[in-house]
Design a protein that fits this description.
It is built from 18 helices and eleven strands. By secondary structure, it is α+β, with helices and mostly antiparallel strands. The strands form four sheets. Strands 5-6-4-8-9 form a five-stranded mixed beta sheet. Strand 5 and strand 6 form a beta hairpin.
Length: 478
């Protein structure tokens, strides 16, 4: 029988392991936080760390040296606050819903109209709320863009006339169109040319209108305008001014604002994208500027702090090194969140220029990995801002859109270019809901052939996948 011996031996090996520091993990957590949660976190850290102070809070008033935003109210103060905010007027939402309930509508139109009504802000517009396109329920194929336009038009015609517009300026134009008694010149001024009325002096307005027409018709492919056959003089301009002054610039002012659904639906606005005049030679991500080739404007991307309080190091007292370093690190984490979001916003605008120029319906195929590779950051960092389940939204001139809206896979077209999956799904919904196809059970193969006629190359299995995502059963069960 052989002897067995147990021996101790030492070996040396080298390996590289990357671990996230606790502070980096916390910074990524802050990046993902919704505004309401981050607001509470800022107050929590400021209360625990005396080296931090709150400079300004958009949602609170300063009393002495304390911010009342997160402080507990005394019972009498809280009662007084409630009494001061009391409003016995009928809300705009209630007033519009009374009218909606008296109409005979399909369930799809009723539900979509209700969403539009409760998506209106205090001015009666939707410009600071969600874009109407994002209210469409993809599991209900009959809720398409055509139905959305009908619902918006129906609400605009309700009393008060001119609600459910993107801006109050658009509301004035809609009021004039619905009234049907506005002159072509008045409609022209209301349709994006209200700046001509500053100052409201007829002679100066005449010069501005004629200068615009001269410049417009100097373009090679310019179309005829409705005011080309109108007499542009001081009298016609004065009549147009009088007409505009009789319109209601604040159609929702007589009503209170329904908060039961509206406030609950308020999203986190993390970025604002505006169109600024002036050609810039190249992109400037560090200042949030994106150039538009061969155009006399560019896009400005700004971080929207919204209701977040502003913080800084306390300048009036000395604290130990550890306390100050913790305060600095927290401020850096907030700045990291801000800079990362702006950087991703720049990349989104850069890759979706056609959307930001022309609006919804012009989404290009784009993935989160493309943005991550474009910026040289990790995919998970992009996902933390643009996940479908979070509440981060981007404010554009066309409305408010979730960050996830700008990401869509693509399929090939006849010219070998890619079309976004969202555009293909929209086209499928249009085909199925078209009047000539009502009652027909179009198979997946049939849908693929009809899409091919539109120049979209797509396999039957891909059609089946998109159909399922739209909430549609197969032709046998439809």
């Amino acid at each position: 029988m052989e002897d067995f011996a147990i021996k101790n031996t030492q070996t040396q090996s080298q390996k590289q392991v990357m671990r996230l520091s606790q502070n980096l993990v916390y910074g990524l957590k802050i990046l993902q936080m919704p505004t309401k949660e981050l607001r509470s976190e800022i107050y929590r850290v400021a209360n625990e760390n005396p080296a931090l102070e709150i400079v300004r809070d958009p949602q609170a008033k300063k009393q002495g040296s304390e911010w009342e935003g997160e402080a507990q109210f005394k019972s009498q103060d809280y009662q007084a606050l409630l009494e001061n905010r009391e409003d016995s007027r009928e809300s705009l939402q209630q007033h519009l819903m009374h009218q909606l309930n008296s109409m005979r509508l399909s369930p799809d139109e009723y539900d979509l109209s209700q969403k539009l009504i409760y998506n209106l802000d205090k001015t009666g517009c939707y410009g600071s709320m969600r874009a109407p396109e994002t209210l469409l329920d993809k599991s209900r194929p009959l809720q398409n863009r055509a139905m959305l336009e009908r619902c918006i038009s129906r609400i605009q015609n309700m009393d008060p006339v001119g609600t459910c517009c993107r801006t109050l300026e658009e509301s004035l134009f809609v009021q004039a169109k619905i009234a049907g008694d506005a002159s072509p010149l008045a409609l022209f001024l209301l349709d994006g040319h209200l700046d001509f009325l500053n100052p409201p002096e007829p002679e100066k307005i005449v010069r501005k209108v004629k200068s615009f027409l001269s410049e417009w018709h100097s373009k090679k492919f310019s179309q005829k305008l409705p005011i080309d056959d109108e007499k542009i003089n001081s009298q016609s301009v004065s009549e147009a001014l009088q007409y505009i002054l009789h319109l209601n610039p604040h159609p929702a002012s007589e009503y209170s604002w329904e908060t039961s659904l509206s406030e609950a639906a308020l999203p986190d606005i993390v970025l604002t994208v505006t169109r600024e005049s002036g050609l810039i030679p190249a992109d400037d991500f560090s200042h949030g500027k994106i150039a538009v080739p061969k155009k006399d404007f560019h896009f400005q991307i700004k971080y929207a702090s919204g209701v977040l309080p502003e913080i800084r190091l306390n300048q009036t007292a000395d604290y130990d090194k550890q306390t100050i370093e913790a305060a600095k690190q927290f401020i850096n984490n907030i700045l990291f969140r801000q800079n990362t979001i702006v950087l991703q916003g720049c990349a989104i605008v850069k890759n979706q220029l056609e959307f930001f120029e022309k609006g919804p319906g012009n989404i290009a195929p784009l993935t989160r990995k493309q943005i991550a590779d474009f910026l040289g950051i990790h995919l998970s960092t992009v996902s933390r801002m643009t996940a479908r389940k979070n509440s981060k939204y981007i404010q554009t001139e066309f409305g408010l859109f979730p960050a996830s809206y700008f990401f869509s896979s693509g399929v090939a077209s006849d010219d070998n270019s890619l079309i976004s999956a969202e555009a293909v799904k929209s086209k499928m919904s249009e085909i199925i809901s078209a009047p000539e196809n009502q009652g027909k059970k179009i198979s997946d193969n049939g849908l693929a052939k009809l899409l091919a006629e539109e120049g979209i190359k797509i396999a039957r299995r891909t059609v089946a996948k998109y159909r399922a995502q739209l909430g549609l059963q197969n032709s046998f069960r439809r």
